[in-house]
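To close the chapter, one final illustration. This time we ask the reader to focus less on the individual chains and more on the assembly as a whole: which components sit near each other, and how the overall shape emerges from the parts.
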Amino acid sequence: MITYALIFAIACFSLGLLLNLWRVIVGPRISDRILALDTMTVNCIALLILLNFSLGSPIFFEVAMLFALVGFVSTVSYCRFLLRGDIIE
Amino acid sequence: MTHDLPLWGEITVTVFLIVAGLFALVGSIGLVKLPDPITRLHAPTKATTLGVGGVLIASMVYVFATEGRVSMHELLITLFLLLTAPISALFIAKVHLHLRETPDTLPEAPDSVGWAGYAADGPARGVREVPPPEPGTTSTSI
Amino acid sequence: MLSRFLPHPLLSLTLVVAWMLLVNQITVNSLVFAVILGLVIPVITRPYWPDMPRLRHPFRAIEYVFVVLYDIVKANIEVALIVLFKPNRDLRPAWITVPLDVRSPEAITMLAGTITLTPGTVSCDLAANGHAVLIHALHAPDPDVVRDTIKQRYERRLKEIFA
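The assembled structure is written out below.
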């Protein structure tokens, strides 16, 4: 039962990633693209944890944690660059 | 891959995984379907966060049911995402306000002090998209 | 004396717990290292923590967390239904101004975060004097209801929590 649920969840998150990618490509506004990239990182974190489920390797947790940190920092720094024209002042 | 769990664990993990997958999918569909940039902000920031939270809870239940130990690792990622999601959403909203809206398109702030994002010495002084000049006027904004 | 070596007890506790979660197993080794981190980091970073917010009712904060978690799940279902089954032309997005009664920066931050996490509303900006917050609602046929819900459900509780 869990196997099928895992496949279902992986399919959902992967489809979500594809839809996000479509939004990144189409835009049309820069805030849409940032938002779509941010959502992509969150979806990737979920996919990594699902991978951890099916492969049973704890290393993916560290990767997921790093994804969470780096994704947040990159979103904020991109927004900050647009807002202030500078990231570190 | 084989999963040997007691029945309650199997049902809980399955339910959490399916609900999480559905929420994440709804968030991404909303990102594609909703009509304009500021409404698009609503769907993914929250539905997707809830989806990841569901996956992490499923993972905790799974580890507890198979190995009998409590894995609190997942809680850290969930907390971090719950803390950072509003901040990224606020930043993206600010970028939208900064690039696409003017004080005239927003409701008036009480005491007529204006919104902080548009204050003269306020935080927003970066890249600005130039609005198309009105016919008959000269645009001086950068 | 105590305040010199332990300037922020809550921060130290958070650091210890976070390190233990990161290591993901409870051994004496990691506990000792966690305590060392919890003691050293607050002392080193003291200049960045000018003053801590005063919590008047810490137990109300726990109640608040559960109220918000329940609302996140409930309101996510509402937004999912809107996204899936409501045609775009029936959407009534709205900008709403919420006047604030809370004044401390921590309380306003908590309120803005809560507004963003409960779906259907995103907090976008703050008035220049900090007395109102601008939010955007995904589907608000009646903006006054949204404003009253926020004030009743979240702000009232936050006002009790933060002195």
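Chain A has one domain: 2-84. Chain A touches chain C through two residues (CB under 8 Å). With these observations in hand, you are ready for the problems at the end of the chapter.
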